[in-house]
């Protein structure tokens, strides 16, 4: 019994680390701060936490309905999702690594009231900046591979981490600095690309296109 619980906790931890890497909070944090420049710290905290809650709801809804959509609506199996999700992660990782926009203009967000800022920032801050197609494909793969319990536990752990992280966004940026956050985000993107390659190879092996040597 204890070994089963310990094993489940281990799987939840690994899956949550994977999700955190794909969500790439350290890469999104400087952009979120730039988008809300001039907003008072209490309002910024409230905005960021609301964005995280919206992103969490998107992931949970997709997680609970993803299997139905996959099996009955589009009639694709898990290996097809692995190939598509892996390809998305590879493209996303390479695009952000090689063609990242460090001079994006967020001036149209400045000076807005909180309600208007929240409405305008749900897209793109919650989706697709924080939660994108790669995240949604990954949670489906986790649920199908490890079970819904592991997937829900991993999503909860990942978003609790994000909730705390974005709640103290200004302090974290001040302590670490933009350069350190940038380096961490670049490292995370390398691992995201590697996870995409692994997911794609697993899917192609399941389909029978290639032979797995693992």
Automatic annotation (TrEMBL):
Subcellular compartments: Cell membrane
Does Iron show up as a keyword for this record?
A: no
Task: Determine if Transmembrane helix is one of this entry's keywords.
Answer: yes
Q: Which InterPro entries match?
A: Multi_antbiot-R_MarC
How is this protein situated with respect to the membrane? Multi-pass membrane protein
Task: Name a GO CC annotation attached to this entry.
Answer: plasma membrane
Keyword vocabulary terms for this entry? Cell membrane, Membrane, Transmembrane, Transmembrane helix
Bilayer-crossing regions = 12-35, 47-69, 81-100, 121-143, 149-172, 179-201
Say which domain of life the source belongs to: Bacteria
* Family as reported in the entry's similarity comment: Belongs to the UPF0056 (MarC) family.
PANTHER family (alphabetical)? UPF0056 MEMBRANE PROTEIN YHCE
The entry's protein name is UPF0056 membrane protein
This protein's species is Helicobacter marmotae
